[in-house]
Amino acid sequence: MTIPHPPATRVTAALARRGRWRLPEVAFWALALAALFLLPGRYLILNEIAILALFALSLDLLLGYSGIVSLGHAAFFGLGAYTAGLLARHGVAEPVVGLFAAAGAAALVGFATSFLVLRGSDLTRIMVTIGVALVLGEIANRMAWLTGGADGLQGIVMGPVLGTFEFDLWGQTAYGYSLAVLFVLFLLARRIVHSPFGLSLCAIRDNPLRAAAVGIPVGGRLVAVYTLAAAYAGVAGALLAQTTQFVSLDVLEFHRSADVLLVLIIGGTGYLYGGIIGAVLFRLVQDELANLTPQYWYFWVGLILVVLVLVGRERVVATLAAPFAGLLRRFGRPVREA
Amino acid sequence: MLTLLFDGIAYGMVLFILSAGLSVTLGLMNFINLAHGAFAMAGGYVTVVAMNRYGVPFLAALPLAFLITAAVGLLLERTLYVRFYGRSHLDQVLFSIGLVFMAIAAVDYAMGSSQQLITLPAWLQGRVDVFGVAVGLYRSFIIAVCGVVVVVLQLILTRTRFGSRLRAAVDDQRVARGLGINVNLIFAATFAAGSGLAGLGGALGTEILGLDPTFPLKFMIYFLIVVTVGGTATITGPFLAALLLGIADVAGKYYVPEFGAFVIYTLMIVVLVLRPHGLFARAR
Amino acid sequence: MAPALRTIGLHKNFGGLVATADVSLTLEPGARHALIGPNGAGKTTFVNLLTGVLTPSAGRILLEGADITGESAHRRVRRGLARTFQINQLFRDLTPLETIGLAVSERQGTGRDWWRRVGTKGAVIGEIVAIAERFGLGDALEERTATLPYGKQRLLEIAIAFACRPRVLLLDEPAAGVPEAERHEILAAVAALPRDVAVLLIEHDMDLVFSFADRISVLVNGALFRDGTVEEIARDPAVRAVYLGEEADA
User: Fold this and answer.
1) For B155-207, what is each residue's pLDDT tens digit?
2) Is residue A74 a part of any domain in this protein?
3) Within 13 Å of residue B149, how many CA atoms lie on the same side as its CB?
4) Domain limits for position C242
5) Staple A238 to which of A80, A250, B106, B267, CB 3.0 to 4.6 Å?
6) Contacts of B265 in chain A (CB under 8 A)
């Protein structure tokens, strides 16, 4: 092909459009960065949002892109948290090393358990993922000599990030650190979902039978994405352990798996920003409602869930997002009419 | 040793009563109802309130727990659950988790977060010695009640017209509809009965399982184990699974307390992976 | 030269029910072969055995001389055995562009690439364009698949299978359910398939079968009832009785 054929240029352009950066995306990240300097006093909640966003992003890779329903994603979050916490407690003070270790540990367990979720219906997947999280929770509880058991893992002392940025009392470094990690991993995820590999995941989500009939090794791809999502969740857990310098059994509990699912559902699945937008909304609403009735926060979580699915997830999200629909589309949010 | 076995059987019987309704929901409507434990909790709290606040005797509180929970179940089925048949499993899971969270918070608000206690009538307290085996009176009572319930359930399922229609509907819903069976009506009735049984189980279980607002989450996995391991095709499958689970859990906690529930969870995963339709299911 | 596809005593039973009974069938390279049979004759089961959706109870499957009986579904595709489905099995939320791009990437062996964007290699683009034009999908490339007209979806079915560059292509009722007005487009696409690809057409529509095929195999109750040229089958009174007769009654 010496002179590009007109349809060929059109196809090239159309494929290139899929992965192009859009202005609102850039603005979003600029805003997140600006918050690092403009919102002192809000760093703690911003840090929590960034961590929750990363956790939800990892679930989006599973649920949104690959169609795997998991109700035990906290398993990998908790595993990452304990790995990073234990490392720091036993002398490895560099946070970034902790991140890699947490990602590795979570990926390892993710890989090993991925074979359990390969086959089977939604129900078996739900049960097995809950089961894996329960097993890990039980192990953490029983190995109190290592994890501190119900008292939690205390005495975590973190060194400065990359030997340079000391964690401060106000959490500015913490937020900056979490945001940077979120951004880097987001970039990687963005790259992945626009690759042939990412596209094959969407194909498996839409129709595994046909995916195999196109020559896609369905099992292999699911193992890969499950492992990847586990590593992401592990990093999110590590960030929590490092920035709060505390790990409790709570990181492995069922409500954490349910929370992250809700966060992702609020923001919408399958366009990467869903988890991030969901995390912002979830934490802000939680802040308001929890101030009202801190004890009964979960009543409102439950109510949101019931109303959300009763009316139809897509519809609620679409209605609430209507004023921003154009904007969201620019984030690459898929348009799906019921 | 035999005492342990006895306790395990009693525990397993309660688990079966608690889970029977869930097995039907799953088998008949292919509905993943994670909120089933909330009905059990409701039954428990009905008993507690009836006995402690209004002085209702224990034996009268049991049917009350069944009836009130069944009514609540029917109401929710007609108003909310019915909208979710045929929806994706993800939606069903989100919806029923939402219900669980609401129930937990609501009960916490109304009753406080502490463990609830009931005082059993004197004739159910203590143990007696039978051929050298110490047998708890209350556990004997549980086994008797649950045994009667199991027999009645089995009779209803196999001997009545309702039972044969229910089995037909579970077996193949479309064919059943084609035969003019009102599947929706059957399901509403079964859902109510299943909720009622859960309520009864919650009432009976208050003494041995404990009762606090986190009950639905704490035991959710147990109910799910019973139905997934037992399969949804028969009533005997979940029954055997419940007994096994009860005995294994009691024995496990006694002999290898350091493992805790670890063994149970691991076994569940193994069974699910090897036999996705349940341990006692017919091969498909 | 080895036959493009060959089955030897292929057998499948579900419990006591025999779905495929001892079927031995040969497809020469570049064949135009039709598989017909009354409803419930086991045609789709046979295709599912060939493509690895089901595992045979006995018998062997040879693709260009190589035994593929034990291979997984996706490996058979990579070896050159592709299929379409009687009922559309498409990726609802992807566009035809993405769907074809995906199939082409997989065939070119870049499906595991998780770093580069789809279509950053020139070869992919050229092939997507060629396939889109061959199957008349050029105008619909960027629409969501679920919203395409039914005829276009049927064309996409064939296009994806074609994108796998098969040596043997199994077409399961390609024109099923397509409105009369859009039908000719699909028949033309089927007729224009390259001659070096062996095609097994599973079909009910006798006009299509007679216009397309050189050889016909008749499946009845899971067993191979007759196998011969179009003329032989058309003249065979037993086939008429079993199949055509039944058709006339229905």
Assistant:
1) 888 888 888 888 787 777 778 888 888 888 888 898 999 999 999 999 999 88
2) yes
3) 27
4) 5-249
5) A80
6) 131, 134-135, 138
Q: Do A310 and B95 touch (CB under 8 A)?
A: yes
Q: What is the pLDDT of residues A208-230, one digit of tens each?
A: 999 999 999 999 999 999 999 99
Among chain C residues, the shortest Cα distance to A214 is held by C103
In a 13 Å sphere around the CA of A94, the CA atoms on its Cβ side amount to 7
Q: Give a yes or no: residue A168 inside a domain.
A: yes
Q: How far apart are CA B28 and CA B31, in angstroms?
A: 8
- A14 lies in some domain: no
- Residue B224's contacts (CB-CB under 8 Å, 6 or more residues apart) are A127, A130, B22, B34
Quickly tell me which residue has 């229609």 as its tokens: B165
Instruction: List chain B domain ranges.
Output: 2-274
**Domain count for chain A:** 1
CATH code, residues B2-274:
1.10.3470
A141-185: per-residue pLDDT in tens?
888 889 888 888 988 888 888 888 888 888 999 999 999 999 999
A159 closest CA partner among A70, A236, A87: A87
pLDDT at A313 over 80: no
- Give the tokens for residue A70: 């998991």
The confidence band for B27, taking pLDDT boundaries of 50, 70 and 90, is confident
Domain that holds residue A66: 20-251
User: Is pLDDT at B281 greater than 60 in this prediction?
Assistant: no
Q: C139 to chain A: which residues are within 8 Å by CB?
A: none
Closest residue in A to C124 (Cα–Cα): A12
**What number is the ipTM of this complex?**
0.90
A338 interfacial to chain B (CB closer than 8 Å): no
CATH of the domain at C14: 3.40.50.300
Residue A46 domain-assigned (yes or no): yes
